[in-house]
Amino acid sequence: MFTLIFVCLCLLCCNLHAETECIPKTAEFKMKGDYLLGGLFGVHPVSATLHQNIPEAIICSSQTFSLSNYRRFQMMRFSIEEINNSTSLLPNVTLGYEIFDHCSDTKNFPGIFSLISVDGSVQPWKESVNFSKVIAVVGTGTSTATMTVAPLFMMDLVPMVCLYGASSSVFSRKQNFPSFLRTLHPNKDVIKIILRFLEKFKWTWVAFLYIDDDYGRDGLDLFVKKIQDTEICLAFSHGLTENTDYPKLIKQMEALRINVIIVFTTEWTAERLIMSAIQQNVTNKVWIAADAWSLHKDLPKKPGIRNIGTVLGIAEPKITVPGFDDFVFSFKDQNQCENPEQDPFCNQMCNCSSLSAEDIITADPSFNFPVYSAVYAVAHALHAVLQCGAGSCNKSIKVYPHMVLEELRKSKFTLLNQTVQFDKNGDPKFGSYAIVIWNESGDCDVSFDGGLKICIDVNTFILLLSYWFILWFYVLQPESFCSKECPDGYMKKKEGVHKCCFSCTICPKGTYLNTTDPYKCIECKDTEWSAEGSTACKPRQLEYVPFSDPAAICIMSWTVILLAFIVAISVLFALNYNTPVVRSAGGPMCFLILGCLSLCSISVFFCFGEPTIVFFCLACLAVHSFKIICIFKIFAKLPILQSYWRKYHRSWLIISIVFFIQAAQLISGTILSPPEPYPDTFWYSDKYILRCYFFKNHKASLSSCVFLFMLWLITLFFSYTGRNLPKNYNEVRAITFCMLQQILIWIFFATGYTLHHGKYLQIFSALAMLLSLYSYLFNYFITKCNIIIFKPEQNTQQYFQDLILDYSMQSSQLVAHHFYSCL
């Protein structure tokens, strides 16, 4: 019993001593250990540019206190204490720290020099001495601050692990920042998620407001590059400073009808912007908050905040660090007092005694896990350098910062279910982003974990948990565009400098709008068609006269009959070859004419059926061969030429010359411009027929036509001069009548060809050819056949001689009569 009372009294005395004992206010900024870590946190950040008349360091504790940064500061202290209490990580090794309140970008160098100094002086590189009191530095808080101090650590490869704010993409350049690493994601990842927001909700007309420093300008540059190949337009951008005229800024955005505003800035700058928007009665806007202020604790509770619209943000997900709350409560339970024996270094003081543990715990928790993982990454790297094993480390190893850096780059360990690892640029390959929304109660709901690993995929962020957000998304979703999107089939016509500002013009018939180029209506192919305002072309139906068509059957039947006539006439002329009628009709030349007429008859069949390139060109060649046959026949039937050239046997020479001239024209024209089918769509919208370009070379076509016309004129001339020949030798009347029929037939064909553009053009062409052939056959050969079969008495040598004698006597009488009349 006595022993129990004694123990209780001892414990009571210890408690009374602990209550009266105090810790120095500077104790939270430094702690001794076997190895030191440096820390740079903006506990009292300077929110405006300071103008001083003398060059002196700034006293940070005189500036505005940042509770969120102070919470991160305490997270570093907690992490080191937790590591020191661990038996598996750095066993028997104690980590110490020296932390500075890095509140200014340019006025905090005494603390930096302290970290890279040894015994109060900065020493050059020597293998034999330790040139830095710290093995690594955790911090700083902004890109600009990091830009100013990082070169001092880079020159000696002191690892600098940044954990919030230093997200500018410039730090990924290892040639400039070789010992820089970070546990927060660079700006490019935030911009990528913002871009997904805009594309998902089809917001194409946006403003980008950014803090006018390295962090903000980098965000703007990345955003401008990302939207180059998209439908998004940057309607307005502005850098925010302490001198920004926010009412004027808001009026400019209102004048441009911008409903979506990206705010890529820090907490204190965002406060001024949002408060000004409340005062200016801005309504129904969408404010996209960057991760630096999306979890702001005070702004969502400001009166009138709901009127400005919807605040959507990107933030680090809330990750609870076990034991941190207990650490804060334990620390705040200790009394803080002045210690005259401990001289505080510059900016290692915080007048935070009025803060409660609840204030710290409930502060903005963003970027706390990056602090936690940064400290642990350094500890794991040191663990590898010291070759720590089961329960001990090799403290005899001289540790240099570059050795820690080498192991940091190879880091790969699990911390709170996250695999901490860095890529080749020192950027994290772990962590995620959350989509947050400020709800009506003034809080920030974490709505979706974007699952940010190596790449960012927020395509599914419509699966949200907040009822208010679902209502906003489906019912109240605002729009932001310069020009409303054109309907399908309407071409955009750009107006002004922005691609988002345009008018809409419907695509005419025969064109369509391709989604890859909304500024141009593309013409359909000849074998396709489209209605007005189409987005695609439809195939035309090929129109042709099939062999089963009644008109085709009729023409082909008459063609067969014509061939039968030609065969019969050929047999008849062969049997009566030596008779005067056959000899006067041309003799052997008759068989040439009949053979060519049969070939022309066969060409009629090429006018029907489905056309192909070979089939159609054969038809074209057949038509031109028909013209050559005409030349053969016409010259062969001219009795004047026969009478003049019979004794010289030159009639075949004339025919050969004409044949070779026309053949040369045909062959040269075909070689220079091969005949090919082309679709004729003149009378149709959804159909087409194939027609033939026989002479695309107009010179060749013109020369052929001129030559044929000259032959027609010569034929007419000789027909007229031979009008008084003997009856059985005079075919002039038949030839003249045949030519008149030819002219009438092809005039009717040309008229129909001009007026009609349907598939029955082939019927017209076949019919014209067939009638021409029948005209030649009946006008010239049928009369001869009539004499041979029904008037054999006229097919004798004596009968022809009597006709010649009568013709001679009549000619003499006419000459005498003419002579006497002249006297």
Automatic annotation (TrEMBL):
Superkingdom of the organism of origin: Eukaryota
Matches recorded under Gene3D superfamilies: 3.40.50.2300, GPCR, family 3, nine cysteines domain (2.10.50.30)
An MF annotation (GO) of this entry: G protein-coupled receptor activity
Signal peptide stretch: 1-18
GO CC annotation terms, alphabetical: plasma membrane
Membrane topology per record: Multi-pass membrane protein
Residue ranges occupied by any G-protein coupled receptors family 3 profile domain in the UniProt entry: 551-804
Cellular location(s): Cell membrane
Residues annotated as transmembrane: 555-577, 589-606, 612-632, 652-672, 700-720, 732-755, 761-782
Pfam family, one: 7tm_3
Protein keywords: Cell membrane, G-protein coupled receptor, Glycoprotein, Membrane, Receptor, Signal, Transducer, Transmembrane, Transmembrane helix
PANTHER family assigned: CALCIUM-SENSING RECEPTOR-RELATED, TASTE RECEPTOR TYPE 1 MEMBER 2B-RELATED
UniProt family annotation: Belongs to the G-protein coupled receptor 3 family. TAS1R subfamily.
Protein name: G-protein coupled receptors family 3 profile domain-containing protein
Organism in which the protein naturally occurs: Oryzias latipes
